[in-house]
Design goal:
Glutaredoxin, two-stranded antiparallel sheet, 8 strands, globular
Length: 173
């Protein structure tokens, strides 16, 4: 009986930091040796996920092509022209074998090409550890204007997922 109780307590504490749809995730920062904003190297703080509907891509560089179809469809929707919409790409540098300096160079050019998107380097899998998002994967998260998580998907976005995300965005713009 004591073992069962111990296991229950252990498993219940493991997910205390897990993100949950319908809730605002705990505040985290990515800074210093852990990474930060690509544009200027400053600290990224999750409390900036507010005042807009945000789509966040949290991606292992080795999985960058998994949701390109979703990214292209999202761009076609032109949500920025319709309301308070933002996008961010947080790159999980700890999940790849590729050298950081190579990926950082690519991220700098992406930031210049898409200045309205927030690019962040996560060198220590901070979101994996703090929010329990999938490691070594392509993750899509959608937040409302208050920072509450409305959608989370790890892996390839299917048509039904994309339809759901577009509906969520349009209802919350």
């Amino acid at each position: 009986m004591k073992l069962k109780l111990l296991m229950l307590v252990l498993f219940s504490t493991l997910n205390l930091s897990a993100i949950t749809v319908g809730e605002t995730p705990k505040n985290i920062t990515i800074e210093g040796d852990n990474g930060g904003n690509v544009a200027d190297g400053s600290t990224w703080n999750s409390n900036t996920i507010k005042d807009k509907v945000y789509v966040m891509f949290y991606v292992d560089p080795d999985e960058k092509g998994v949701n390109e179809h979703f990214s292209a469809a999202l761009k076609e929707k032109k949500y920025r022209e319709k309301g308070a919409f933002g996008s961010m790409a947080i790159i999980n540098l700890a999940a790849t074998w590729k050298p950081n300096f190579v990926i950082e160079k690519i991220l700098q050019s992406k930031q210049e090409e898409f200045p309205d998107t927030i690019y962040v380097k996560d060198k220590s899998s901070v979101l994996v550890k703090e929010w329990n998002v999938a490691d070594d994967a392509s993750n899509i998260l959608v937040f409302d204007k208050t920072g509450k998580l409305l959608f989370y998907k790890s892996g390839k976005m299917e048509d039904k997922d994309m339809t759901k995300v577009f509906q969520i965005i349009e209802e919350n713009l």
